[in-house]
UniProtKB/TrEMBL annotation:
It comes from Halolamina salina. PANTHER family: D,D-DIPEPTIDE TRANSPORT ATP-BINDING PROTEIN DDPF-RELATED, TRANSPORT ATP-BINDING PROTEIN. Residues 7-272 form the ABC transporter domain. It comes from the Archaea. NCBIfam families: oligo_HPY. CDD domains: ABC_NikE_OppD_transporters (cd03257). Belongs to the ABC transporter superfamily. This is ABC transporter ATP-binding protein.
Amino acid sequence: MTDEPLVSVRNLKKHYPITEGVLSRQVGAAKAVDGISFDIAEGETLGLVGESGCGKSTAASSIIRLEEATDGEVIFNGGGRAGRERNADGTHPNDVTKFDDEELKAFRRDAQMIFQDPSSSLDPRMTVGRSVAELLMVHGMTDKQRRREIVEDLLERVGLEADYYDRYPHEFSGGQKQRIALARALVLNPEFIVADEPVSALDVSIRAEILSLLNDIQEEFGLSMLFISHDMSVVREVCDRVAVMYLGEIVEIGDTDEVFSNPQHPYTEALLSAIPRPDPSDQRENIELKGTVPSPISPPSGCKFHTRCHMVIQSDEYDLEQEDWRALLTFRDKVRAGEIDPEGIREALSPPDADPSVVDDETVEDELRMEFELPETLADDDAEAIVDRALDALTDGEIETAEDELSTFTTPCEEEEPEETDHGNGHLSACLRNKPDTEHGAPLADD
Ligand code: ADP
Ligand code: MG
């Protein structure tokens, strides 16, 4: 492995236009990928991890140019030139996003993709051997016998048999199909492979085999790899470094060992906490990631993770348990979104055939507190008084008043976009708590 990056992604963006009406007027954009940057060295595997909807596949297809990026650069094989020898107009000669047809054809040989569903890269009407050999033909190898030899050899190297050449995709299991897809990705001798959730659709029992095959092949062929997964435990198996993605952005990146042993972003912590731990003496806190990734059409302000973050920063005015502060902000956001229905609760709590009004306000308020994990009484008197008034307003049907009361609760996390903090060794994170001169209390972890 050399230190020279094979791939340099710089501030890459992919925004999908949102249109409306018969004239398809653009009314907004889904910022699926919103400015990501990283390098992948020769022979290195970088993991890209995050929940479903974070923008991983969009990033992959923009990097490999199955889709056109909105902005940014993907510098491929820039050699020593990366960032130095630019064209007169400031563009880079090796920027994939600006390749013409001829350059793109060469790139399509050097960079290959493996998908979650191996069937997607295999034609059901073609023998698997032909499916793989076809690529050699497209790229100019006219000797049929030679093509067959190369493919047979590859089938063996991915753990199959040479005489599988003449069989059809339906004759194979999912794991075997993924091996064939891997052979197909390797046949043009690429330098770079993007694997998008390559084991997520496979039986748990065969995932380890395929991961270890990927590891072996990557080493044997000296490949650089972008390995995409929603599963941290899979990332640990194959990746030298890992980039954690949330809502179109990278919130943490670093060596796999460091990110796993010393996570600096609460989102990374939460993803790590989801890995099953067979060792009962493992005392790590269990962090539950509630809800799903918000829409990239109207992402949260400030730090995009603030709506779900267990470490969301308290405003100076209050002194609450961290989990109560989290509950309070979630309650505020739900009231704001009009997702609270006190009369529905009253009805649900009333006995069958009875008038819902037999259920008094206090019972409804208690139920709301329970639902939103608010304690019976908050430890901070001022905060308690506000919540009490908000709950009264809600049960009186005065939603706006409740909203006004609760809007006194604010967090720096929704106001300020976190900048990148450098933890050394290429380990970076973007969380307000990690600012070196933070006024927001101790960083997440410092050991
Ligand atoms: P992941 O692979 O991490 O699950 P994706 O890249 O598939 O995430 O999607 C990221 C976000 O972009 C999602 O909110 C998804 O709905 C949105 N998205 C993906 N493709 C399109 C598209 N063609 N048009 C509009 N939005 C899209
Ligand atoms: Mg995906």
